[in-house]
Write a structure and sequence with these properties.
homohexamer; about 290 residues; Arginase, Chain A; eight-stranded parallel β-sheet; 8 helices; about 15% strand
Amino acid sequence: MSTNTASSPPQRAAAVTVAVLGFPTDSNSSHLRGPAKAPARIRLAMNDDGSNSFAESELDLATPGVFEDLGDVALREDESDLETIEAAIEAQLALGRRVLSLGGDHSITYPVVRAYALRYPGLCVVHVDAHPDLYPEFGGNRYSHACPFARILEDAGVESLTQIGIRTMSSPQREMADRHGVRVFGPSQLQEACSRLPGGPVYLSVDLDGLDPAFAPGVSHREPGGLSVRDVLDVLAKIPGNVVGCDVVELNPERDIQDMTATVAAKLSKEFIARMHADARRNEEVSF
Amino acid sequence: MSTNTASSPPQRAAAVTVAVLGFPTDSNSSHLRGPAKAPARIRLAMNDDGSNSFAESELDLATPGVFEDLGDVALREDESDLETIEAAIEAQLALGRRVLSLGGDHSITYPVVRAYALRYPGLCVVHVDAHPDLYPEFGGNRYSHACPFARILEDAGVESLTQIGIRTMSSPQREMADRHGVRVFGPSQLQEACSRLPGGPVYLSVDLDGLDPAFAPGVSHREPGGLSVRDVLDVLAKIPGNVVGCDVVELNPERDIQDMTATVAAKLSKEFIARMHADARRNEEVSF
Amino acid sequence: MSTNTASSPPQRAAAVTVAVLGFPTDSNSSHLRGPAKAPARIRLAMNDDGSNSFAESELDLATPGVFEDLGDVALREDESDLETIEAAIEAQLALGRRVLSLGGDHSITYPVVRAYALRYPGLCVVHVDAHPDLYPEFGGNRYSHACPFARILEDAGVESLTQIGIRTMSSPQREMADRHGVRVFGPSQLQEACSRLPGGPVYLSVDLDGLDPAFAPGVSHREPGGLSVRDVLDVLAKIPGNVVGCDVVELNPERDIQDMTATVAAKLSKEFIARMHADARRNEEVSF
Amino acid sequence: MSTNTASSPPQRAAAVTVAVLGFPTDSNSSHLRGPAKAPARIRLAMNDDGSNSFAESELDLATPGVFEDLGDVALREDESDLETIEAAIEAQLALGRRVLSLGGDHSITYPVVRAYALRYPGLCVVHVDAHPDLYPEFGGNRYSHACPFARILEDAGVESLTQIGIRTMSSPQREMADRHGVRVFGPSQLQEACSRLPGGPVYLSVDLDGLDPAFAPGVSHREPGGLSVRDVLDVLAKIPGNVVGCDVVELNPERDIQDMTATVAAKLSKEFIARMHADARRNEEVSF
Amino acid sequence: MSTNTASSPPQRAAAVTVAVLGFPTDSNSSHLRGPAKAPARIRLAMNDDGSNSFAESELDLATPGVFEDLGDVALREDESDLETIEAAIEAQLALGRRVLSLGGDHSITYPVVRAYALRYPGLCVVHVDAHPDLYPEFGGNRYSHACPFARILEDAGVESLTQIGIRTMSSPQREMADRHGVRVFGPSQLQEACSRLPGGPVYLSVDLDGLDPAFAPGVSHREPGGLSVRDVLDVLAKIPGNVVGCDVVELNPERDIQDMTATVAAKLSKEFIARMHADARRNEEVSF
Amino acid sequence: MSTNTASSPPQRAAAVTVAVLGFPTDSNSSHLRGPAKAPARIRLAMNDDGSNSFAESELDLATPGVFEDLGDVALREDESDLETIEAAIEAQLALGRRVLSLGGDHSITYPVVRAYALRYPGLCVVHVDAHPDLYPEFGGNRYSHACPFARILEDAGVESLTQIGIRTMSSPQREMADRHGVRVFGPSQLQEACSRLPGGPVYLSVDLDGLDPAFAPGVSHREPGGLSVRDVLDVLAKIPGNVVGCDVVELNPERDIQDMTATVAAKLSKEFIARMHADARRNEEVSF
């Protein structure tokens, strides 16, 4: 698993199921900076010799055709990044690939999902987080990392939004959730949430602060009482639908303890790639 | 070099449901010092910009009338503190408030509960901890942090004591538990414990070492195999009774890792305030 | 500058149920060194004043006759260690004792189980780990810490092998598992695993990386999504059989955070001693 | 959830030599947030029981009249803060006090020194830092923490600027330094710097990253090769002039290790208070 | 759960120059507990494979006859410990050995030096510390770790006391120092201190908080602005006298970072042993 | 400052003064693994936004022509690496470049210096380290990281070897040093060492454990009493000769604290590049 930059998609592109793209940005973070440094750390953890290349499904991610890490997309830390991110995703989707996006803060999910929703009508979004990220605006910024799901609900054209692990719902976000019929589940409602996960094409967005800080201390907003790593993997396993895209966001290496959270992000990344690969293969079989 | 003191309760006192009082004491600790420094750390965590003011019930704790932090009660680290603590609690109860007490070590719970039991006949105590704290005396000290529940059982006049998370029951404590009919539940019995939580007026005391050290490393006595933060919140949620008082004790900032445990204490504090506020409101409605 | 050695078993040997032996070796580790330093750290944690001598069963481990720590077995970090370890175990078994072995890396379990299998026909092995450790060889080393259970299956003569917590099964290991009928359970199958634990004489081997890194960061191969300390204690509690031997391996003090993982190893050690003592006592009663 | 504010200076004000003011701001930081949390941490360290109240001069800081901590000045994190800070300093100077300012990031030093320069004609500024902070503007912000000394040179009307510990002089800053005749000393020139420290009224500004990260890891910009704590205290001791004001800035608690840097900030604060008190007393004697 | 004890000095005793004795006590500590755990940690660091057995003088400490570690002296944490410690030292001195004492807190130095002063008339004490430890009593305890040098001056009968690194001299201690003619040097006076070190028999006592916390964070009272490890070794090198005894005290493993301070204590221990061995050899040559 | 791999030297090669090459190897380490992960960490630190591109000489390293990072050289962790490393250096030297080599453990310095000595007759080696690394062989391995300077003395054909910071000279190494006339300076002899640094072409090898662990905790063998970062920069500044090559080795990220040592390695790297660039420019001027 090697690193490089996203400049030159290799020629064998079409043969790869999953593209990994890093989006090193944190200028839309409200509290601390740091997530821009996350993709590099996640890659180090993915390639660490203490780890290995097999997913829990026993798929070897090193198998040619499973995934390719295209490196980081160059961003400017201004509003033009919205378009840059959306375009980078579109380019991969156009090649028939699925994408694992590595944040960066949660602001990247809005342009990513916009691109996905265009390609996948009826897209259902599953969102693991401590916070609903449904603010109409935050600190005057409509594209703050506190707002992406408000934007998605308003104009991305998704079928449904299911939020899991939420434990800091504030009034303005509650209003937004109710207006758009968001299904919101706290950590104590995990079983119920798992039983109501959507079919159809599914986009899974995981903010690492959805996990309990015992598992993922390296986040800007630690909110105790969250999910375990296993809980998140169980959510993944119980999605009946076709997982077409994923992101892992909000790793803040500045607050991490001995790269523990980067290791969690790498683990989730590997399982997300394996699932997307399996769903793609299953889909192909169905198609033919 | 001074610290906040709780000397002058503001005039709008009666309008506030919950008072927060710090008790910075650790001279009754048997092993390590440190918990005297805890209230200041918990307050920093409660006010951290990475956090927010909404409880999981969606109550905004910043709403006027919910709670007021009265700072720390001045203590002398001698036996007179027992009376000082009891009096400080009584003063708040006399104003019609409920109190969240921030330790300090667990020795504070005896005088706190004494004050509560006088005002709330039939008081049931729910106690989350790794240790039963039921020693007749410890190292020659009857008011050691290893003894408060022995003292409470002997003379505070409470209705019942339910202990949850216990995993180090020694012979002298077992004898005390049996003599007084204490209901003791280990971490593997959590579900059963939750189904047998008391009604009536309830006082909830949480020693942070009841949690697993993965969630709460900043304690003097780390005992692996404990509860998660979510487990403790579930205990709170399943108390059928009227939660009239709470404490969070035994944070030892000297052993904390990046304030992780202070953040847990702050989270519990916020949820405890929200629950006491809700129970008080419900009670008022019932009364009228 | 010397270390304790296990050279001279005291004369009162026969009266003790459980012997504790340290095996300070890590030359068969594939990735990092460090586990050779583990036994000393686990002992410090077991003797820490913040802990106490009561197991969860309320057995006081300080009771004479429960256990004796015989210190570390001198090893050379070459292949002769296989015999040295096997002989050290045999010597204790010959005295009628059960043994808690403190690693060292997982390579010690092969010679330990060989000795056990000879003495206990029909021995069932329960193995908690993130990895199956079933490689035919690893990096050219048949006795690598990635291989002990391959060796055990091939020639130790055990009745069955049950693996719990596995989350990195690779192809060569899957083949080995299938060939020998290993029962493999991932962390999401914990309940099922617990319902299918073996009777008969049971050897329990716990690689600390079977735990989630949130609970046990001090391991060479952190694999998120693992068990909690409580999960492992529940596995122990649900073994219907007679637990005749145990090990706790793969603590890497070089990666530990504030001795958190050493404390977990000490906790498991205490519970394993208590269980072996109880099973021995029960067995004696049955025998007479 | 409130914080101390500096709104009401106590009536005995005139009798105190030194006022301590916190300026919790970091919105002008270019890289990471965090310094806004510093004043609270420095106060905790100053009041820690492991410390004591005697300065190295054997002055007891607890002596009435030495200093008073007025808490934090409420800031808005916008340009109005420049005036607020300047006014807060002016108010103390008008009372005949000297001020120790606790940052916050280095952007506070411009308004602080403006106030000082008006009251103390011929003010000489001594500045300990890894960086010259002389950018004409940084990232479009003329009041960035990378610019305060450019602003001071341009319009505060100070007599001289002496920079010590500088090890990252870039071209635009070199030009600014040369234009204004700044005396710049790297860490290897410490002895020479100490021999050329100014007389007259002196303002001392200490950015904690002037220290080597071994001594002060808790800063946003770690630049190895810096001063020791003793070096900074030696600089203080060798200032021949009358130290009328000081600041300690750029503590970033988010990056601190076990509050080590907060403890350094507290130590410096104590020595700065003692020096200002001694110089004030000496001055009074001279005056009469 | 037992610890090593120093009960049975081996028969080849006379042939060894230096005895190492641990004194695991911290009940006379004023602020935090922890130093009782230090000897075990220093031994682990001395025996760590990352270290080696050569002192800077190129003496191999593993050479037979250089030193022997006798383990810990059993203490009760009451006043009887004073006699126990003194007797343990006397017993070694009677065998013609020199002793390296591993604390525990600084309270051990009084009984240790009492034994030394009886055997070595004209004993000069060199004391490295942040604090003078000259309180007449502290918190009502005349044997507090804040008092040992007051006791030594009053009744141990030493020739002189030289204190190096002092940076928190309070009034009651200044009075004691002046009354007894103590030579006190702050960290900025290190060169002068080194030029005035005593001849004759010398006892060297090193409180690890004499070092800067950057080098030795694992102490109960961190006082920035202290010595480097090299500074302390230079003090040792510049003692013209005959170093007959040494101690290393006040390591608090509870506050250490990755055993960094235990490693410093081990390094000092090795150099102290080597120096005592060399001085003993030189003395023998002179004698014959 | 970007990362890539060493596969395709860009066409503008000749125009660049310094090449940076990573050698990710640690199989010749005697105690712990880890240094193979170092180059990636050093690059992250060099590119961190908290840092900047100016060296202390005020050279902007971002200036085209100063340096180019060619990424890591692929190694096999067997003896063939000796040739691979030597060839990789030779290739750069043949292009007229100077090389900064990033370890990896210290075993890389032997093949690196072999290549240098061929191209630069009369090469003088300056070596900063806690250990002389002069073992004839170590644990049976002649190419162990404990042996490179023995090999260099024997067959690389260098003019002289000057070792600085040495504090663990053992007998077999002393013999080697004496036989070859190595100039060995301990940390207390730093000034003398600096006054005797060689002219002529100089190769500078810095083992990070030459630094005190307070500055560089992230090494396999922590040896307190070492140099500061400034000391090493002063050594560099006082080399009268022409610095033609440098390495920074033995960073062990597994033992680092918050990347503190990686940041030190990055700082040294930047200063080494700047010095090599300046010496190359000076040399060119002399030539013309």
